[in-house]
Amino acid sequence: MKKRKNRWLSFNNYGIQKIIMLSFTFISIICLSIVGITFYLRYVTNIKSVISKNNDLLLEQVHININSYLDNMIDISKAIYDEIYIKNSLDNVNIDNEIQILHKVNNKKVVNIGLFSKYGEAVSLSDNISLKENIDVRDNEWFIDAIKNKDKFNFSVPHIQQCFEYKNNEHIWVISISKYVQIKKNGKMIDGVILVDINFNDIEKIMSKANLGEKGYVYLANNKGDIVYHPRQQLIYYNLIEENNKKNSLLEKGVYVEDYENYERIVNVKPLDAINWTMIGITPVINMKKEYINIGIFILSILLFAISLILILNMILSYKITMPIKELEKAVKNFENGNLDFKVNIEGFLEVTYLGEVINAMLDSIKNLIESVNREHYQKRKSELDALQAQINPHFLYNTLDSIVAMIENEKYKASIDMTISLAKLFRISLSKGENIIPIKDELEHIKNYLKIQSIRYKNKFSYKINCDEEIINCATIKLTIQPLVENAIYHGVSFLDEDGMIEINVYKNEENVNIDIIDNGLGMSKECCENMLKGKVEPKGGGSGIGIKNVNDRIKLYFGDNYGIEIFSEYDVGTTVRIVIPITQIK
Hints:
It is built from 16 helices and 20 strands. It is an alpha+beta fold. It has three domains: 14-303, PAS domain (Beta-Lactamase, 2-Layer Sandwich); 340-385; 391-583, Heat Shock Protein 90.
């Protein structure tokens, strides 16, 4: 079955150009997505239009009701106005009678009625109220509007009337309707103001019937942009929420879309016929979320079904296309990680098969080249190490032998014997059976013999001390790394002192490393000189083994890596510390 399947899906005889043609799957998905999104956006646009029309019809009914109510209130105000205008010759008692009658007939809608002179005097009041003491009605907005706009009825925003004392002690929200009028008092015509306070609750009941969805609402605003009615009026008064009433009250009749506080809203605007008020319906677009979600789910289901069919075919085809490429990727990663012991087995279309063959040939060439380079590098490194370790200065051997001869001639037999034994041990450890890596204890034994010889030669001009932690005494180090540094400490440090020269060697563990400090109390040197010595720009002169500090540093780095080597710390008239840092390594 597997062979048949592979044969059915075989791409061995096809080029990559035909495989690329199969990318129609991606183009198909893009096309389907565009069609789906276009259909969805078209639906969203249509549903916005439908909701706007439905809201307009609903607002029209509320518009009719509120207009009818306000017309009725204007008729009541006109009736009082007409009575006063026609019966100017009547005395105040007759005017009182007319006001009381009109109030009683309309007491369910009208809270109170009042007639005032331009001086703020109460000419006549309905019998349910009395004017408060120390109140000047001329300071009220309804009074000022009536005197200012003499030819029309003026409507205030909702408020609690503070000018009167009510006999039932009830203070309710009212809308004040005021109108300029001329009244006859004491035989003279004077300016006055009619006041009719209507119950705001009636307007609230009419407006509350407007239902524009879960979060939609309708509010009223006057021509100044002040809110007359709002379902969240208290929250607006206390500045807990805001409304775009100032801007929307200036709009002409129609349907608008606005972006307010990062929310898109549909705004239906209908000015009232009776007065300069505007009815504004607000429908947040988020109200349509359920409709959007339903149609979105439907469109998405169709798209997912179509895309699933395309993806099944695409997965089968892409598997055959990508598998050979993934094999090549694995081969490149193996090569990147330094693994060259593998062969690329590629079965696929022609181009990938050819690339696999090229990679295999390249791997063979690289392996051969690396082997050749490694052989050359090994021989070169071995030659360098051998040459460095062979640089024992013959002057040291000559001077040591000359010192031994002089001691024998002076019959200092014991000293000459000690010096000869130290020299023999020195060379025995130097040879170390041809091993380049020796234990730290052997290297210290070697330097102990060396210091003993030099101390005799320099006639005890300096003393020395060697300290080593027992736990690292058997760890590995490179042969002949300490001696060249001690030589430099002698020839260029303590040899210039008249007496009390001191060389101290401390070997200790520092975390995962071994530190070997060679300390002398010689003349010291500058920081620049220390850096130049490590770079090989300054080599010791006038003595020493000839194995410079740079060479020792290079040997350490060559064997242990660039993280290890030599550090130099020095100060004039204090001395110098040369520190060898090597890893803790056990002798194999």
